Structures are given as C-alpha cells and as structure tokens.
Amino acid sequence: MTYDELVEEFDFLGDWEDQCDLLIDMGFELPKFPDECRTEENRVHGCQSNVWLIAQPVQGNSLKLDIRADSDAMIVRGLIAVLLTLYSGRTPQEVLDIDIREKFARLGLDQHLSSARRNGLNGMVQRVRGLARKCLAETAESGDE
Fold first, then answer.
1. 55 Cβ partners below 8 Å, 6+ apart?
2. Burial of 132 (0-12, 13-18, 19+ CB in 10 A)
3. Mean of the per-residue pLDDT values of the chain
4. Backbone angles phi, psi at 35, to 5 degrees
5. First vs last Cα of the chain: how many Å apart?
6. Domain containing residue 110
7. Is residue 88 over pLDDT 80?
8. Is the dihedral of CA 139, 142, 143, 145 positive or negative?
9. How far apart, in whole angstroms, are the C-alpha atoms of residue 79 and residue 58?
10. What is residue 119's three-state secondary structure?
11. Residue-level pLDDT at 60
C-alpha cells in the first residue's frame, strides 16, 4: 500500500477505532524480521515496547535503503508498517527529505497516539534518519554516487 492509498483508507474509515484496526492488520503483513537481528544494537530506545530496526543499503540504479523492523506490540507493528511505507526503498536523501510530521498529521496519528507511543514513533523516525545519514556519509567517503 502506498502512502496516498493509506491516506485514502484512513479518510474512508473515519474513526480512530477502525483506523487502529487497519494499523494492526498492516502490522500482521510485515515481512518476517530475522531473529538474529533482535539484538540490543538494533533495539530502538525510547519505545514503550520492544522495537528492533535495521536498514541496509541496496545498490541498483541508485543506492536505496531496505528498512526492516519489528515489535512485540501489535499497534507498534502497524506504526512500523506506516514507516516502511514512507521510507523503505527510498534513497537516503529521500528519507531525510520526507516531512514526517506532516505525513503523520495527515493520518491523524499525532492526535490519537499517547505521548509514550508518539515518543516511541519519534525514536523509530530518528533511528531511520540516523541510518540514512550514516549511509550518505559512507557513500561520500567511498566516492560512490
């Protein structure tokens, strides 16, 4: 599902309870996260529940990020699915250019999530952005573009 399709679906559903159910369903569709990646190094700090996140560069016509994540909480898995919709398969610079607050506001996530969930979501966003910056720096150092 694209971000625009997600916005349409959220608009169609209207109320938060139905939107929350959709998020949970999206979480069930996440690709399997490798057990060996459930390490402290990959854990996102600041989240109320356990969240693990990795990003690997994939070389094609341009360098893109393959982002994978998982959580032990159903609603958080849904929020991860939203993040993957926005970030995965993009170049590191595209990741950094996304106005994530505007995207979340358009979905109404800023209104419906508890402060603890918002903090956790922000932690995931900061982790992805940090990995994108690291990838850009490594690319610049190696002279690849």
1. 65, 66, 67, 68, 128, 131, 132, 135
2. buried
3. 90
4. -55, -35
5. 29
6. 3-142
7. yes
8. negative
9. 23
10. helix
11. 67
pLDDT in tens, 44-55: 988 789 999 998
- Domain count for the chain, please give it: 1
Q: Is 135 a residue of the active site?
A: no
The pLDDT of residue 145 is above 60:
no
Which residue is catalytic, options 20, 37, 47, 135? 47
pTM of the model: 0.89
Statement: residue 118 has pLDDT above 90: no
Q: Where are the alpha helices (DSSP H) in 14-114?
A: 16-28, 74-87, 92-97, 100-107, 109-112
Q: In the numeric block, which tokens belong to residue 130?
A: 């940090």
Question: What sign for the dihedral angle of Cα 68, 74, 76, 80?
Answer: positive
CA distance 88 to 66: 5
For the beta carbon of residue 81, count every other beta carbon within 10 angstroms: 22
Query: Domain of 59: which CATH number?
Result: 3.90.1010.10
